């Protein structure tokens, strides 16, 4: 795995799993709950330390920490704390399982995870899904989706994107021309060409293709996708393009729209804050400043309340004035 160093949550030192377990038990024992202690401990330890705390909790008290959190806490704050306790390796598989479970499929979650994760991360997700849920993720996804949206999800799930290497300018030109002919120049759209090129070429190659496309067509590739496709496929193609350009910028936009306007998309807010907290949340904060002239800290401050807000702000780290 690439070593991620742009997270806001780092390993806590000096760390004492037993002392943390005891403090958490005390916070939940008897009448009333000391939410402050719970949120301070869980947001300031990294995921592997939280797993050690859970294990110490069971050793000391014969109780399951996550079950206790679920019975003592409520609402969005509970969801956030329980999400923080989920082992990192299982986080994405769990989110995908819930996105394709029961009535209706949550295309937003499928799009976000499959567009933004690296091939290595995607291979890991498929393996974990099989181990934990004894089911094949690809089969589950194809059972719940259809059309070109399904095709692109399957292509991404193969996790066979070309590795970054020397970029062949001839192939860049060729791909840009193919996309131009498949979209702007064609009556109707040849979606398959978009799916194959955007789903399999390397990141550095595609960044050059996007530049070349602009030169040839006079349009940003996003504008063409917007005009030529619609619905779930459009959202997925746009997410892939944005992640090729910059994953932190994609998540900055995702967080921005989860809080912009009336109401908050708390599921998205929690999922992104937790899943990126040890990876690139510092970069995401910078991109939000740059692209939306907003501070993530201030958006959270304004859009949330109570212990839920306190915990999110601690995960966010500083304020980017």
Automatic annotation (TrEMBL):
Matches recorded under InterPro entries: Annexin (IPR001464), Annexin_repeat (IPR018502), Annexin_repeat_CS (IPR018252), Annexin_sf (IPR037104), ANX5 (IPR002392)
GO biological processes: calcium ion homeostasis; negative regulation of coagulation
Designated name of the protein: Annexin
SMART domains with a match to the protein in the record: ANX
PANTHER family recorded: ANNEXIN (PTHR10502), ANNEXIN A5 (PTHR10502:SF26)
One Pfam entry name: Annexin
Domain-level remarks: A pair of annexin repeats may form one binding site for calcium and phospholipid.
Key words, A-Z: Annexin, Calcium, Calcium/phospholipid-binding, Repeat
Gene3D superfamilies reported for this sequence: Annexin
Organism encoding this protein: Apteryx owenii (Little spotted kiwi)
Family listed: Belongs to the annexin family.
Gene Ontology annotations for the cellular component aspect, listed alphabetically: calcium channel complex; cytoplasm; nucleus; plasma membrane; vesicle membrane
GO molecular function: calcium channel activity; calcium ion binding; calcium-dependent phospholipid binding; phosphatidylserine binding
């Amino acid at each position: 795995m690439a070593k991620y160093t742009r997270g806001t949550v780092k390993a806590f030192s000096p760390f004492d799993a037993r002392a943390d377990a005891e403090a958490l038990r005390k916070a939940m024992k008897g009448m009333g709950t000391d939410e402050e202690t719970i949120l301070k401990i869980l947001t300031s330890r990294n995921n592997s330390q939280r797993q050690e705390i859970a294990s110490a909790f069971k050793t000391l008290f014969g109780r399951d920490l996550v079950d206790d959190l679920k019975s003592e806490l409520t609402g969005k704050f509970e969801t956030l704390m329980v999400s923080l306790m989920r082992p990192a390796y299982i986080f994405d598989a769990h989110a995908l399982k819930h996105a394709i479970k029961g009535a209706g499929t949550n295309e937003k979650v499928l799009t976000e995870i499959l567009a933004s994760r690296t091939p290595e991360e995607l291979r890991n997700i498929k393996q974990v899904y099989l181990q934990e849920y004894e089911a094949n993720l690809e089969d589950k996804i194809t059972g719940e989706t259809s059309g070109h949206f399904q095709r692109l999800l399957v292509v991404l799930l193969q996790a066979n994107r070309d590795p970054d290497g020397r970029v062949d300018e001839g192939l860049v030109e060729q791909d840009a021309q193919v996309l131009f002919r498949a979209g702007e120049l064609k009556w109707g759209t040849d979606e398959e060409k978009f799916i194959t090129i955007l789903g399999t070429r390397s990141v550095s190659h595609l960044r050059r293709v996007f530049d070349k496309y602009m030169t040839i067509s006079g349009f940003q590739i996003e504008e063409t996708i917007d005009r030529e496709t619609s619905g779930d496929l459009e959202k997925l193609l746009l997410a892939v393009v944005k992640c090729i350009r910059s994953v932190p910028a994609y998540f900055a936009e995702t967080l921005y729209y989860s809080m912009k306007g009336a109401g908050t998309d708390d599921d998205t807010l929690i999922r992104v804050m937790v899943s990126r907290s040890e990876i690139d949340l510092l970069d995401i904060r910078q991109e939000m400043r740059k692209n939306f002239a907003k501070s993530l800290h201030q958006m959270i401050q304004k859009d949330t309340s109570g212990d839920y807000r306190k915990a999110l702000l601690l995960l966010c780290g500083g304020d980017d004035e």
